Amino acid sequence: MDNSGIYVGLDIGTTSIKVIIAESVQGQLNIIGVGSDRSKGMNRGVVVDIDQVAASIRNAVRQAEQKANVNISDVYAGIPANMLSIEPCQGMIAVSDESKEITDQDVQNVAAAALIRNLPPEREIVDLVPDEFIVDGFDGIKDPRGMIGVRLEMHGILFTSPKTVIHNIKKSIAKAGLNLQSLVVNPLALGTVALTDGEQDFGTILMDLGGGQSTAAVIHDHKLKFTQVDQEGGEYITKDISVVLNTSFESAEKIKRDYGNANVEATSKEEEFPVEIVGQTDQVLINERYLSEIIEARVEQILTRLGKALNQVKAFDLPGGVVITGGVTALPGIVDLASKIFDRNVKIYIPDQMGLRHPSFSQAYGLVNYVSKLSEVDRLVHSPISNASVNYTAMSRPSAASTMDQSQSPRPKQTMAKQKVEPVHESEVPQQETPTQAKPAKKKKNRTESIKKFLNNFFE
Question: What is the pTM of this model?
Answer without folding.
Answer: 0.82
